[in-house]
């Protein structure tokens, strides 16, 4: 048990996961680098297929990366009486990142 858990007296509380659940944008970490010829964006999008992610440029200056993580795994088990979920920590739902280009 971490010091934070001991101080708060709650073994199930995880401040990082709590932030992700409140702010889905944190579940899409993105690195941005500029080379001589281009700007390169690398986003962590586990579980998504290429066609499930939209990459657009708005107004010629704003890169927008968006998509949705579906809740398929949980939805499949809703009616299954033999399945009990104990914890769901992976973020689901819509996400969007925007970057103003130079």
UniProtKB/TrEMBL annotation:
The keyword Iron does not apply. InterPro entries: A-crystallin/Hsp20_dom, HSP20-like_chaperone, Small_HSP. Residues 21-102 form the SHSP domain. Signal peptide: none annotated. It comes from the Eukaryota. Belongs to the small heat shock protein (HSP20) family. This is SHSP domain-containing protein. It comes from Flemingia macrophylla.
